[in-house]
Amino acid sequence: MRQPTAGIHHITAFVGNAQDTVDFYAGVLGLRLVKKTINFDAPEVYHLYFGNEIGGPGTIITFFPWAGSRKGRIGGGQVGITSYVVPAGALSFWEERLERFGIPVTKVERFSESYLQFSDAAGLQLEIVAREEGPRSGWSFGGVPVDKAIKGFGGAVLYSGAPRKTAELLVNVMGLEKVGEEGAFARYRATGELGNIIDLNAEPVEMGVGGSGTVHHIAWRAKDDEEHAQWRSHVESKGLRPTPIVDRQYFNAIYFRESGGILFEIATDPPGFARDEEPAELGGKLMLPAWFEPARSEIEANLPPIEVRELEVKEQ
């Protein structure tokens, strides 16, 4: 059975300072804070979600900001680089914007595409590429107009400790198509228009260490609960060990670790982030699942205050 995923649903990372994270992803990158909640397993820590105007699958990056947490090391068993995609012709806007915010940018070429590579405040490695495909974002903030705004994920660069086995899994389990090889990478394509391009290292990468500035997991899309259950059976039939289905409020999830060390999740597209907030109000208040509501006052008192704010750019 070859059951293809449409591509990336979301990517989740560890960072240190919560306000620095909001300033970077909303203030600099112009993404929308679509959900402010907590880590259900550690309610003293935020779980922050950023994406397009609705937090659509393929646009969502999420963070566990933990002040004083150890610094991680990017390496094998992780997403090495998170790729964002912008409309064709918008790359020069982003190069200038990042430079005006004092963010060092490196230009690279990969598979005949131009990328701007940079890091966030925690050291997470990011890049921006321009492509025609994929719907545009409807969100504008902080001086980023809609016609230049980040659409969502272009994809990701995976760092595997066992790239041949990871490659087999991408094709034979996740249903991606291998579309090319170039230098140190092979390229794979999923069926969707966002979060659909995955580049994988050809040779093993020294294993990384989790911590601030590293990706915790990459999640792939399942279109609904029925398909999600099929995915769990499919993954298990390939000799992997998926978790039971977990209710994450805004999607259901299963998790498994592939042979190269990368933690994979498969997440449902529905119900989405408007299940407990009106679309116009997304990210406006701390949202808690019902079982945490009795402890709201205590939880809020333990979380640092954060705000979405427009940032002043440096004058050239």
Automatic annotation (TrEMBL):
The source's domain of life comes to Bacteria
GO MF terms here are:
dioxygenase activity
On whether Nucleotidyltransferase is a keyword of this UniProt record, the answer is no
Pfam families according to UniProt: Glyoxalase
Where's the VOC domain?
Answer: 7-131, 152-269
Q: Give the record's keywords alphabetically.
A: Dioxygenase, Oxidoreductase
Q: Per its UniProt record, what CDD domains does this chain match?
A: PcpA_C_like
Q: What InterPro entries has UniProt attached to this entry?
A: Extradiol_RC_dioxygenase (IPR052537), Glyas_Bleomycin-R_OHBP_Dase (IPR029068), Glyas_Fos-R_dOase_dom (IPR004360), VOC_core (IPR037523)
Specify the protein name: Ring-cleaving dioxygenase
Organism per entry = Paenibacillus oenotherae
